[in-house]
Amino acid sequence: MPLTDPTFVGQVASVTGAVVRVRLREDMPSTLVMIGGESYRVGQIGGFFRVPLGYTSLYAVCTQIGADAAPPGSAEQDFGPVLEKDSRLHLSGYRWMTIVLFGEGLGGEFERGVGQYPTVGDEVHLVTNDDLKVIYGWSKEKDGTISVGQIAAASGISADISIPGLVSRHAAVIGSTGAGKSNLITVLLETVSDGSLPNARAIVIDPHGEYATALGGRARVFRIRPDEKVGEKPLWIPFWALPFFELQQLTLGGLQPNHEAAIRDQVLDMKMEAASKLKIRPPPETLTADSPVPFSIKKLWYEMDKFERQTFSTSGNQQKPEDAYPPEEVGDPGHLKPDRYPPASPYNQAPYKNQRKRNIERHLDLMRSRLRDTRFSFLFTPGGGYDPNLEGGVQHDLDSLVRDWVGHDKPITIFDVSGLPSEVLPTIVGTMLRVVYDMLFWAQDLAIGGRQQPLLVVIDEAHRFVPERGETSAHRTLSMIAKEGRKYGIGLMLVTQRPSEIDSAVLSQCGSLLALRLTNSADRAKVGAAVPDDLGGLVEQLPSLRTGEGIFLGEVMPIPSRVRVRKAKQKPIGDDPPLPEVWQTAPRPDGALYSNALTNWRAQSTTARFDTNDKEGEGVPNA
Question: Any bridge partners for residue 223, and if so which?
């Protein structure tokens, strides 16, 4: 191709792996080039370039632009044209740019990755809109793509992302507050649930309760206090699905190792006894205290409390179970009422205290308080037949629970966890995901398994669940999904405004990055270290992106692309309020509504129903 080709912009000066330094043409009068009636800017960060190598063309993206500078009178002034004729500016040398290779094309077919590298002197050309249509045309022949907007650098080209790249290779959506993360997630979920993918499965962990309204009837919504009139379902997480350590920390707190071991054995005994009553009995040798087998936690508290309160007619090593005094008042484990025993004498005489007592009265008081706390009723007294009786029997098992969660006919499941107590949120979310993950793992050879029907897990506010050096249930479960989920058909999408706080090992497992505007330097540094394809230089664009624009990197698109995301059909609740209209034209709200707000606060619900027929006129929630 002759050097007079209008797309020719420079020559390769050096090659370091995929990073290529290009010296721009000396006779280029302007960085604005007209080709085929369309204008192109040379040296735009994020712009695309082509390096012809015989029948093959390598494609690259610009990450840096500059000019060599030298003091006046130096020999370097002879290496290229003087860029500034004013001697006071002292800028001389040649213009250059750095491009990063990301793919190659042959015969109109584009493929990610490069099989060969350019050498010094090879030509570098602009990528025209016709070239872009060839590159982005990869999706037109495939069914596995969805459109989320338009390519910002070229008019009329749809931004199509790969479903396998999005689900199987994991993804991270990052951006500052107000950059458009919620809109992007809503657009993705809208497209997945529009009917073109009838067997799609996705779980959304929604800490702010903002996606249910945006997706309408396309999703099944679970929340602590559901509005059943619109089809929402109550969120129940049976406590017996938690691993023993998580349950212990939640109910008893920290214990001495010997006491922890004794209680673990007690829980195992209760689970083994209850397992014999299940419809399908598991082999006894496979059971542990961590096994998801129902048992009565109220009976566990009652037995441990009884052990602490018992008094005996004998002392020391001579104490035997038959020497225990009978209770003066028999308690009721179902109502968390303890037995009453004759108090131990402070003198060396009967009644004697239990010489083997663990002195965990304070822990048992915490456990009783937690079991009675209505905020935790979704966990310790779940409805739907998941609450065990005192013998450990349940009406429904975990298969019914997971079928209700992900086995329904809607493609999206939204877990609105905004009503969960914040101190247990990572534990509960981790347990929910672990139950689903384990169920699909052991179903990998069945039609419901992840390999036959993959599942996408979307985690909003991901920095709360997988923080750096975290030790919560959510952290362990999400780390496992990030490392192993691809093999079992479970994909992960992390959504966060603070990527600097996310575990580096989890973030590095994300094969795709959907980065919206991001201004914090620490966040950009964390993202730059996790960017695939050696394209960290593009991170410097993030502060200047417009609202709703993002740089898509990795497996979701064939080339690194600046995408203008379309507006969602229904705005999520987390979208910006309509200012200044609401300040200009909306009527002043009735001050009496603050009473309703207080009632909502006390009822821990934003949708409480009010009974205004009480004596004082204060709203009383009845739902």
Answer: 234, 416
Residues 220/412, Cβ–Cβ less than 8 Å: yes
d(CA 400, CA 292): 14
**Would you list the DSSP string of 440-504?**
HHTTTTSTTSTTTS-EEEEETTGGGTSBTT--SHHHHHHHHHHHHGGGGTEEEEEEES-GGGB-H
Q: 3-state DSSP call for residue 131?
A: helix
pLDDT over threshold 90, residue 615: no
Shared domain for 206 and 251, answered yes or no, is no
| Digit-coded pLDDT (tens) for 446-502 | 888 888 889 999 999 999 999 988 888 899 999 999 999 888 889 999 999 999 999
Is there a single domain that holds both residue 438 and residue 371?
Answer: no
In a domain, 113, yes or no: yes
Q: Determine the structural domain holding residue 321 and report its residue range.
A: 244-375
Check whether residue 411 and residue 539 sit in a common domain: yes
Helix (H, G, I), strand (E, B), or coil: what is residue 314? coil
Q: Do the Cβ atoms of 304 and 333 come closer than 8 Å?
A: no
The rounded radius of gyration (Å) of the Cα atoms in the chain is 32
State how far the Cα of 524 lies from the Cα of 540, in Å rounded to an integer. 8
Distance, CA of 60 to CA of 351 (rounded, Å): 85
Rounded CA-CA distance 299/389 in Å is 9
Burial of 64 (0-12, 13-18, 19+ CB in 10 A): middle
Contact in structure between 458 and 204 (CB atoms under 8 Å): yes
Q: Per the domain annotation, does 570 fall within a domain?
A: no
pLDDT at 421 over 70: yes
From the number of C-beta atoms within 10 Å of its C-beta (0-12, 13-18, 19+), residue 588 rates as exposed
Q: Report yes or no on 151 lying in a domain.
A: no
Q: Do the strands 109-112 and 95-106 form a parallel or antiparallel pair, or are they unpaired?
A: antiparallel
User: For position 30, what pLDDT does the model report?
Assistant: 67
If asked whether residues 22 and 112 sit together in one domain, one would say yes
Q: Answer yes or no: are the C-beta atoms of 124 and 9 closer than 8 Å.
A: yes
The strand ranges marked E within 210-286 are: 219-223, 233-234
Residues 6+ apart with CB under 8 A from 20: 12, 14, 51, 60, 98, 99, 100, 101, 118, 124
Angle at which helix 425-441 crosses helix 473-484, to 10 degrees, equals 40
Of 127, 150, 184, the domain-final residue:
127
* Tokens standing for residue 190: 């809208």
CB atoms within 10 A of CB 466: 27
Per-residue model confidence as pLDDT tens digits over 563-594: 999 998 887 765 566 667 777 777 878 888 88
Query: Measured between alpha carbons, how far is 473 from 477 in angstroms, rounded to an integer?
Result: 6
Q: Give pLDDT tens digits for 99-109.
A: 989 888 887 77
147 domain-assigned = no
**How many domains are contained in the chain?**
4
Q: Residue 257 CB: number of other CB atoms within 10 A?
A: 7
Query: Does 88 score more than 80 pLDDT?
Result: no
Length of the chain, please?
623
C-beta separation of 433 from 491 below 8 A: no
